[in-house]
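Page 37, continued from 36.
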């Protein structure tokens, strides 16, 4: 049986090269990409860290993340790792001009969402802060490859009051990580 390759778009802790490697994803097979029609919300219920990144449909929004070439064995590992999310098919736009401009990819999305009050409680949780540090490390790493990555990532986060606090926290962590 031929092990065909597929793509997966990631936007949370898997932005971190260490997290990618721990999942069996070759960082050199990843590139910055854009996903239109979504925004990032930190509203996925996660027992281990209170809240996790998630995608919500948003007509005029776009999310910057990375798209990675993986085989079906990695997809199986991702399905296990990303419990509570479902895999969806999306079309991403690569942000490097020397590669194919659009890529068909999988993305993990959850319908199990926390309320804003629940998210507010998570913001001060040390586990959530550690989770944001992992994302910040990934943002800093990918910003070296695409200088607009940080700005575009942060602008793709949902724009309500509680997410403004999360964006401020991420900005501080990004500065500390540089």
């Amino acid at each position: 049986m031929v092990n065909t390759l597929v793509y997966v778009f990631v936007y949370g802790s898997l932005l971190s090269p260490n997290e990618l490697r721990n999942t069996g994803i070759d960082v050199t097979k990843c590139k910055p990409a854009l996903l239109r029609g979504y925004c990032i919300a930190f509203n996925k219920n996660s027992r281990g860290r209170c809240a996790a990144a998630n995608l919500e449909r948003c007509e005029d929004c776009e999310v910057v993340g990375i798209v990675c070439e993986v085989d079906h064995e990695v997809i199986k590992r991702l399905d296990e790792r990303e419990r509570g999310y479902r895999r969806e098919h999306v079309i991403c736009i690569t942000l490097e001009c020397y590669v194919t401009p659009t890529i068909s990819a999988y993305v993990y999305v959850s319908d199990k969402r926390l309320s804003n009050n629940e998210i507010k409680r998570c913001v001060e949780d040390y586990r959530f802060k550690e989770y944001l540090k992992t994302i910040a490390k990934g943002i800093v790493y990918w910003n070296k490859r695409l200088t607009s990555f940080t700005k575009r990532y942060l602008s793709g986060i949902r724009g309500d009051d509680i997410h403004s606090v999360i964006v401020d926290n991420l900005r501080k962590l990004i500065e500390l990580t540089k």
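The domain at 5-177 is CATH 3.10.490.10 (Hypothetical upf0131 protein ytfp). Flag for discussion at group meeting. Residues 100 and 141 are 22 Å apart (CA to CA).
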